[in-house]
Structure formats: structure tokens, C-alpha cells
Amino acid sequence: MSRGLSILALILLAVVSFGLYQLSYEVQRLEDELIELNRALSQERETIGVLQAEWSYLTRPEYLQDKAERLLQMRPTTAKDIATIEALPWRQDRGQTDPDALPPAKTAPVPALPPLAAAPTKPAVPVARIAARPAPEAPAGAPVRVAAHPVAPAMDFDSEVAAVLGAMQRAGETRRAQ
């Protein structure tokens, strides 16, 4: 019996030794993998730092303005690019083909717009020329009637600028007087 126990202990010792041998190699492989991952992580952090520096350089306002002027033929807004809201044309409904085909609307008549004054009492809010905004959608099945508003003829640009500047000077003088 002692001989069978000795053989069993010897087989058990061989299995445990082989298991420890395999375990030590697995630990070494995982340590090497960890070192490689840490090396890749530090390299990625360095790359992120370089990319952030490049992003900061490429998003400088003067650099973007230069690129917009050279490549997109864009230019800074000038006084000629500014108009008043009244100078923008009224938008017509795009889906409406024949305004007389709809029944008459039960609304009050729209009064005609007064002509633009040479010197407005309040300076008009200047807006850049923009595309027309889409009209709010009407409920399905509701007839849409678009009133044709007369658009006042726009004054030439110099007289508009002179009128706005004059109004601003008068407003400044009245503030100083108070």
C-alpha cells in the first residue's frame, strides 16, 4: 500500500509542477501584454496631445479667416451687406399656384405699408441679408391665403446710412441733454 501511495504522490507532484510551470509562463505572457498596452497607451496620449495642439492651431480666428477668404472666396461683412427688415421682400407661398382658386379669406384687409422715411425717428435694426425663413405650416386641409404686400422701394444705400447715422446722432444729443 505504501508503494501505491508513493506512486500516487509522485503523479500528483508531476501534475502540480506542470500546472505551476504553465501558470508562470501565463503570468509572464500577461505581464508582457500589460507592458505593451501601457506603451501603446502612452503613445496614444502623446498623439492626443499633438492633435489637440494642431486643433488649437488650425482653429485660430485669423487662420480660419484667411482660409475662408482664399478658398471659399468669402469676405468680411461690409456696410453694403446690411439691410433693414423692411427692405427684404415678402415671401410668397411656394406651394400656392393660383391665389384666386381659394375662397376669400375672412380677415381684415391689410393696409398698405407707408413709404420709408428719409430720416427714421428710431434707427432700424440692421440685419444681414439672409435666405427667407420657411412659413409656419398650416393645419392639413386648411386653405392658405397669402396677402400680396406691396414692398416699398429701397432707398439707395448712402441715403439709408445717412438717415441711420443722423438718427443715432439725434438720439445721442437727446441723451446728453437729459
Number of helices: 3
Compute the separation of the termini in Å: 121 Å
Low-confidence stretches: 122-133, 146-154
Globular, elongated, flat, extended or rod-shaped: what is the shape?
rod-shaped
Which features characterize this protein?
178 residues; mainly alpha; two-stranded antiparallel sheet
Structural summary, described in words:
The chain has 178 residues and is mainly alpha-helical. 50% of the residues lie in helices and 3% in strands. It has three helices and two strands; from the N terminus they run H-H-E-E-H. It has helices spanning 2-58, 61-71, 157-177; strands at residues 82-84, 126-128. Strands 1-2 form a two-stranded antiparallel sheet. The longest helix has 57 residues, at 2-58. The chain is rod-shaped, with a radius of gyration of 40 Å. It starts with a helix and ends with a helix. The relative contact order is 0.09.
Write a compact overview of the structure shown.
By secondary structure, the chain is mostly helical. It contains three helices and two strands; from the N terminus they run ααββα. Helix content is 50%, strand content 3%.
Give the secondary structure arrangement, pairings included:
Elements: H1 2-58, H2 61-71, E1 82-84, E2 126-128, H3 157-177
Antiparallel strand pairs: 1-2
